[in-house]
Amino acid sequence: MSDELLKLADAVECYKVEGPWDIARDRERDLNERIAIAAGVPCTVRVGHPALGDERTIPARIPAYTASLDAAMTLVPEGRFVGALNQCDTDGEWYARIEAHDAVYEDATATTAALALTTASLRARASHLRMEVE
């Protein structure tokens, strides 16, 4: 699982919005769905009432991790915190660092703050999983 999180983190870090807006939107939606699945967020919800016979499953609203800092913050693992989130002077890229009190940290750079924070959070989740296994 930690290897999958690291591959996903690399995909997020390299993500750039390109092409027609509708194609870019669909690619971003797919990426956000992959992040939600990796983070254990349900991608479907049950609605209706079984006693009335109208219960059904519909797609859940997936958080926009790649576009929203609020959504990206929900990926920071418990016991970790955002140690840095700033824009680099030289190239305009964003830098994010997720830290733990034991001085372990994961970092990332990306084209937007949300992408950098999402990437660093996914790496921190992978690191946390590796430590649990050891």
Describe the structure.
The structure is a single chain. Helix content is 43%, strand content 22%. A hairpin with a 6-residue loop joins strand 3 and strand 4. It has a single domain, classed as Bacillus phage protein. The protein is built from 4 helices and 5 strands, in the order H-H-E-E-H-E-E-E-H. The radius of gyration is 17 Å and the shape is globular. It is of the alpha+beta class and 134 residues long.
CATH class: Alpha Beta
Total number of beta strands: 5
Tell me the series of helices and strands, N- to C-terminal: HHEEHEEEH
CATH architecture: 2-Layer Sandwich
Features:
two-stranded antiparallel sheet, single chain, alpha+beta, 3-stranded antiparallel beta sheet, 5 strands, globular
What is the gist of this entry?
With 134 residues, this protein is of the alpha+beta class. The chain is 43% helix and 22% strand.
Q: Could you outline the blueprint of secondary structure elements for this entry?
A:
Elements: H1 2-14, H2 21-39, E1 44-47, E2 56-59, H3 69-73, E3 80-87, E4 94-100, E5 105-110, H4 113-133
Antiparallel strand pairs: 1-2, 3-4, 4-5
Helix pairs in contact: 1-2, 1-4
